[in-house]
Design brief:
14 helices; alpha+beta; 8-stranded parallel beta sheet
Length: 786
């Protein structure tokens, strides 16, 4: 028997459980009383098609809203239901979702995506009058589990005389009967399709699927078939959880406590790239900071340790740094045992003595990070440990994907003939990173890397092509031997991590490949082993595939709780995720969509204690490095615990050819930092200030985050050149000064509190997940052919 619902608001889809009393009963036909289709395409989000004689489904781009007369359902218990649609084109339906709609909407009379004031569209329940769910970004705030809605999916029947039947979960109709819903949303879950002939691959993104609407031919009008059990009580109402916007009490930040800025121009810029008006600096114990001068000082004197770097230009830009005793970039790494208070120093420049000072505040930054700036990459040019050390020194986490599109691994244990692993070579390479010994002499000491990609993927150590049976739905795509080999490998990694004592680092199982790579590289099947879009999933079939991999992963990983293994997914479209990854992902990496769907993401993260990152691009050369600081602070304020610039390793010619992605510059004697890497460090450190402030002030983090987002310039926009672009963050011109003031005020407040040092003020790492607590979701049975 199916086990109970894990949560009242989650939908349990029961396969093959039709009541025997219903099999011989005749269904009741209920006509659709209003219908329209709406579009998520950027230029059509305010378009209405309520007057069209057709309806249209197109993956996550276009969906249908429809309704029936709820009086026909009142007081009755629904035990089975189908939606009947008549095709008006050659494209038929595969798997389809039908969801309740948690907000009232107006059908409208528009055609051809006309903007009809007061009518439903993707962005508005009533255009110009009412947003979905009152405040949601679009209709996804009121369907597919959001706002208390419920949903179900299943495969449509075969086409007979132009008709298809779609299974509808009885709970979806019951919600309408009991006034907890305002109609139905219908989605095509397959979305994009492909054909394979040998090695030839042909991709069909988002085919258009047309159907008759109630405004079309009467004989072809959409309708429901409903089976009732008369006289039985209705199903209990599920608890309504608003995943669009969690409560955020008003917060406050310290005011007026920071040192005053003086207007003396000295020709220096800070590591954020902003012009400095004073050389009176302030820093916590354990913090690093620096400034860039126009000319090289002859001498620097102060009773704190410092280093100097040369800043050669790349084209017209300053970015890479190399150690140089005559360098123009001066950096201080404040010792944890430094004397609190003002430390006076002086620069000698062209015979002129210029005073400066560093005031050490009486609080300490932790060695174990509360916020993760993850420097992502896809390969290193050699001297691997040196790159990890450089990131570690800058309070960042370097994470290099160890496999490519084919799934072939670049860094993995050797597989013996019996399927077991020979760990010796792998341990020699990764062991110092996972036990922290590679960093023993650095400022944070023997703290292991916070995250580390595992080599596991769809084609390692399994042979994907030998096991893949085809199809869009993963439950039938692989044989049992494939999953058995995968679980065996996961278990081996978990046991090995536990045995070696590598229990601090997150060992991340992450699927990076996409079926679309096949089309992008000449339409060849062999280009990648991914039969779905694993990275930045789009259609329901993609999320469903990730769900299955996660379920199998936790079946093995949960048996070794001492190992901190986790399942990570990179997601650009959280609005289409539903609850499919609840209880499954430990780490989710969001695009700038975090800004649009913050409430939805935060609610999911709170349920499972997920670690949320925002990914994107570092600031481009020639633009303000304060963008990276603001990005870190804004991400924290939105409830997430890390940022991921998607590529950070510079090319070999990055010293002479400007490379916007180079945060770590390769060199013959080891990698070198960039000014932009140091700005990420500054952002991470400022988040540590905020973390300590929340802990010591007793304020709610969401409230403090809301106050931070209210600072001038902190409401960023995401700029993208295409759908696949990682995106740039555009902050207001006032953001740098606002954050500089925030840092000074927070620092002065924390200095007055003088808290005792802690190893860590907040642990962003997710807990292990229990596979027994993963909500049960199974497809509905396919309706019989009619």
């Amino acid at each position: 028997m199916p086990r109970p619902l894990a949560r009242p608001a989650l939908l349990l889809l029961l396969a093959g459980t039709f009541s025997p009393a219903v099999h011989g009963a005749e269904p009741t036909r209920l006509e659709v009383t209003r219908d329209t289709w709406i579009s998520a395409y950027p230029t059509e989000t305010e378009g209405n098609n309520g007057g069209s004689p057709k309806l249209k489904l197109k993956g996550v781009q276009e969906l249908i809203l429809l309704d029936l007369d709820p009086a026909r359902l009142a007081g009755r218990r629904i035990v089975r239901a189908e939606l009947r649609l008549h095709l008006e084109g050659k494209e038929s339906l595969g798997r389809v979702t039908v969801s309740s709609v948690a907000d009232e909407w107006i059908e409208g009379g528009g055609t051809s995506y006309a903007k009809a004031p007061g009518a439903a569209c993707f962005g508005w329940a009533r255009l110009g009058e009412q947003r979905w769910a009152g405040h949601g970004a679009d209709v996804t705030a009121a369907i597919n589990g959001a706002g208390g809605s419920v949903w179900g999916f299943g495969d449509a029947s075969a086409v007979v005389d132009g008709w298809q039947s779609i299974p509808v979960d009885p709970r979806v109709l019951q919600a309408r009967a009991e006034g907890r819903s305002h109609g139905f949303a219908v989605m095509d879950d397959v979305g994009s399709e492909y054909t394979k002939e040998g090695n030839r691959f042909l991709y069909r993104p988002f085919p258009n699927r047309y159907f008759s609407s109630r405004e079309g031919k009467r004989a072809n009008a959409p309708h429901f078939l409903v089976w009732f059990e008369p006289g039985t009580p209705a199903l209990p109402a599920p608890a309504v959880v608003d995943v669009a916007r969690p409560p955020a009490p008003a917060g406050r930040l310290p005011e007026g406590a920071g040192p005053n800025l003086t207007p003396a121009t000295i020709g220096a810029t800070d590591e954020w790239g902003e012009t400095m008006t004073t050389l009176d600096l302030f820093a916590a114990k354990g913090e690093a900071l620096g400034f860039l001068l126009e000319e090289s000082p002859d001498q620097i004197a102060i009773d704190l340790p410092f280093r100097r770097y040369a800043a050669p230009k790349v084209g017209p830009h300053l970015d890479p740094l190399r150690p140089d005793e005559r360098g123009v970039f001066v950096e201080f790494q404040i010792p944890k045992n430094a004397r609190a208070g003002r430390h006076a120093g002086q620069l000698t420049l062209r015979g002129r003595t210029i005073p400066f000072s560093v005031t050490v505040w009486n609080f300490t930054l932790p060695d174990r990070l509360s916020f993760l700036a993850q420097m992502n990459g896809y390969g290193l040019p050699g001297q691997e440990h040196a790159y990890y050390r450089l990131a570690h020194e800058h309070r960042a986490t370097l994470n290099i994907l160890p496999y490519g599109w084919s799934g072939k691994t670049k860094l993995a244990p050797k597989v013996r003939p019996d399927g077991s692993f020979d760990w010796r070579s792998w341990d020699a390479q990764v062991g110092p990173l996972l036990d922290g010994s590679a960093f023993a002499d650095l400022p944070r000491g023997r703290v292991p890397v916070e995250a580390f990609y595992l080599p596991l993927n769809e084609n390692w150590p399994m042979d994907h092509e030998k096991s893949f049976r085809g199809g869009y739905w993963i439950e039938d795509a692989y044989d049992k031997a494939y999953w058995s080999a995968f679980r065996q490998a996961v278990g081996a990694f978990a046991r090995h991590f536990a045995e070696r004592g590598w229990t601090e680092s997150m060992g991340e199982f992450y699927l990076n490949n996409k079926v679309t790579f096949k089309q992008q590289r000449g339409g060849r099947w062999e280009v990648t082993t991914a039969p779905w879009v694993f990275d930045e999933p789009s259609n329901t079939q993609d999320f469903w595939a990730l769900r299955r991999f996660g379920q199998e992963f936790w079946r093995a990983a949960a048996e070794v709780p001492a190992a901190r293994l986790t399942f990570r997914c990179d997601i650009s479209r959280p609005q289409w995720q539903r609850d499919l990854l609840d209880g499954i992902t430990g780490v989710e990496v969001l695009s700038g969509s975090l800004r649009t769907y913050e409430g939805m993401v935060r609610a999911r993260a709170a349920r499972d204690r997920k670690l949320i990152y925002m990914y994107g691009s570092a600031n481009k050369l020639g633009t303000s490095r304060s963008t990276n600081v603001a990005w870190c602070v804004e991400t924290w304020a939105r409830g997430a615990d890390g940022v991921v610039p998607w590529q950070t390793i510079g090319k070999a010619d990055a010293w002479t050819q400007p490379d916007d992605l180079a945060l770590l510059y390769p060199g013959p004697d080891g990698p070198r930092p960039s000014l932009r890497l140091k700005s990420f460090r500054a952002g991470q450190q400022l988040v540590e200030y905020l973390t300590q402030y929340v802990a010591l002030s007793g304020q709610d983090r969401a409230a403090v985050g809301a106050a931070v987002l209210a600072l001038p310039g902190l409401q960023a926009r995401t700029l993208k050149r295409s759908e696949d672009d990682a995106g740039d963050s555009a902050f207001g011109a006032e953001s740098a000064r606002a954050l500089a003031r925030l840092r000074l005020e927070l620092g002065a407040w924390l200095d007055a509190q003088a808290p005792a040092p802690r190893e860590r003020w907040h642990d962003p790492r997710p807990p292990g997940l229990d596979p027994a607590k993963i909500p049960v979701i199974v497809p509905l049975p396919t309706p019989p052919t009619r």
